[in-house]
Design a protein that fits this description.
Number of strands: 0
Distance between the termini: 31 Å
Structural class: mainly alpha
Largest sheet: none
Amino acid sequence: MNTAVAAPAAVDLVSSVQRGPAHWGRSYARMLRFDLATHRGELSQMFVMQLLMGLAVSIIYGLYVPHMPHLSAAYITTGAPTLALIPVGMVMVPAIVAQQRSMGTYDFVWSLPVPRSAATAATVTVFSAVGVPGMVATVVVAALRYHVHLAPSITLLPGVAAVAVMSSSVGFGLAQAVKNPMVTNLFANTLIFVATLFSPIAFPASHYPHWLVQVHQYLPLYPMATVVRDGLVPGLAPGLVHAYLVLALWAALAWAAVAWVVGRRR
């Protein structure tokens, strides 16, 4: 009797996968709960990791330059939250997906009877949101450390949302496109090195070689910092429109990669 009841229920559940926006919304909400429950441990680790990185950047440069010029202090203060966010979206997300592949739970996630776009959107939402508290804590500590007066504008919230979503989307897209977990982890660790030492995030772009600045114009790291910086101190960072366009392009490429990889799964 139980089998007879369960079979139609299972058929109904699978057949309802593509019943329109209402079902997609319910599936999205269910996958949000699923991701929060599945990644409880990782989410706390992410918060600690990004907070430590953001606080380290906020404090350590002041030890190198005891009497820091105001402009440099403003760039460090407004760049620190971006450096705090990068480990979450572009490092921890690929590492978690790589871990799922190694443990064999990756296929289980994609076998769940929900639209794959809803599952993807839920994962990106969770890992985008988890980075925001660390960003806030980092910028507060940096502003107090360097006595920088911030003037948050109305563009700060959409800017932070755009940066968080783009970062998680790129990290998730990379994890889906690269099947080898070792390659994924290598890229993630290299990104931390590049972001902290060779990206014009905590310092003005004029401090870097011209060719390197031109490269960063089309990579996501510098535009991320530009968007957040303009939201904290309007007018401090030039090229805001260009930065948003670059972020939108990278997010679109990431989602295209996810759609291509996930769409090919059976």
